[in-house]
Write a structure and sequence with these properties.
The chain is α/β, with parallel strands linked by helices. The chain has helices at residues 38-48, 63-68, 73-81, 85-92, 110-115, 118-121, 141-152, 213-218, 230-238, 258-269, 276-290, and strands spanning 7-11, 32-33, 36-37, 53-58, 98-103, 126-129, 133-135, 155-161, 171-179, 182-190, 201-209, 243-247, 252-254. The structure holds uridine 5'-triphosphate (UTP).
Length: 291
């Protein structure tokens, strides 16, 4: 029976070692890009596609995430009494969404983090968003993936071409294009050497998964770095059924990495309605002084 995608899983239990010391006691996912924590970009992206139920996978030192998506009545009353309506709207507009928080007791990898959501997902297809992959808020990546799912009821992965020098950081696919930008995936390799990568097309942090993934993750043994890799479970599915991918040509920032984070901050600040003009002027000045 066809089931609509109503839930999103956001794994946020990783250690964030690329951002130490900032992430020693604070979640990486709460680092702000201009004025919103990066995890809020992912929630807003899914909400725009009609998703209202979120399952957050958290861990040690991640409690700020739970507080961020809760109501803050003292602050709300304070803003109300001072007539700060737009600030009030800014902290209230996601309160209609439902959030469940599950602790991943040990960060045993992305596959394991997703497995933690099993009791809440039940027997439904669901979206997974990795919040440190920031997708241009003006693009409709997740919407296109969900539309493809509605037509084919199969797993859909977000894909992007990456330079050869970065390919070793990703899961990389082999596949054939079945219609513009949609691929039927034939193989996947996790973090290959550039010389053995099957293509320059990498899997990025958006997935539409079907509930049978849980069974395959449960049967997956720890792989690279002792972690239970999602890619290994997906590879097992490939032996029995089809997995598709959507090649995203828009803008994505790997904000889990210092340089990607800085690029996201600069580019999203240049789009921010309040600061964009002054910030652009500042940047132009700064650049002319650098020359
Ligand atoms: P990353 O590969 O970015 O790992 O995980 P990380 O631990 O967050 O960061 P680094 O590499 O140490 O700097 C991708 C996503 O999967 C989540 C992370 O929170 C991140 O959103 N994740 C990863 C988990 O939830 N649990 C894990 O065991 C591993």
């Amino acid at each position: 029976m066809f089931k609509k995608i109503k839930k999103a899983v956001i794994p946020a239990a990783g250690l964030g070692t690329r951002f130490l010391p900032a992430t020693k006691a604070s979640p990486k996912e709460m680092l702000p890009i201009v004025d919103k924590p990066m995890i809020q970009y992912a929630v807003e992206e899914a909400e725009k596609c009609g998703i209202k139920e979120f399952i957050m996978i958290t861990g040690k030192s991640k409690r700020a995430i739970e507080d961020h998506f809760d109501s803050a009545w003292e602050l709300e009353e304070n803003l109300k009494s001072k007539g700060k309506e737009s600030m009030l709207a800014g902290i209230q507009h996601l309160l209609h969404l439902q959030f469940a928080f599950i602790r991943q007791k040990t960060p045993l990898g992305l596959g394991h983090a997703i497995l933690c959501s099993k009791p809440f997902v039940n027997d439904e297809p669901f979206a997974v968003l990795l919040s440190d992959d920031i997708i241009d808020p003006d693009s409709n990546l997740l919407g296109k993936m969900m539309q493809f799912y509605n037509e084919h009821q199969a797993i859909v992965l977000a894909l992007q071409k990456v330079p050869k020098t970065e390919i070793h950081r990703y899961g990389v696919i082999a596949g054939r294009e079945i219609k513009k930008n949609f691929y039927e995936i034939t193989d996947m390799v996790e973090k290959p050497k550039p010389s053995s990568a099957p293509s320059d097309i990498a899997i990025i942090g958006r997935y539409i998964l079907t509930p049978d993934i849980f069974h395959f993750i449960e049967a997956t043994s720890p792989g690279k770095g002792g972690e239970i890799q999602l890619t290994d479970a997906l590879k097992a599915i490939l032996k029995k059924g089809s997995i598709y991918g959507y090649l995203f040509e828009g803008k994505r920032y790997d904000a889990g990495d210092k340089l990607g984070y800085l690029k996201a901050t600069v580019e999203l600040a240049l789009k921010h309605p309040v600061v964009k003009d002054e910030f652009k002027e500042y940047l132009l000045n700064k650049i002319s002084n650098l020359k």
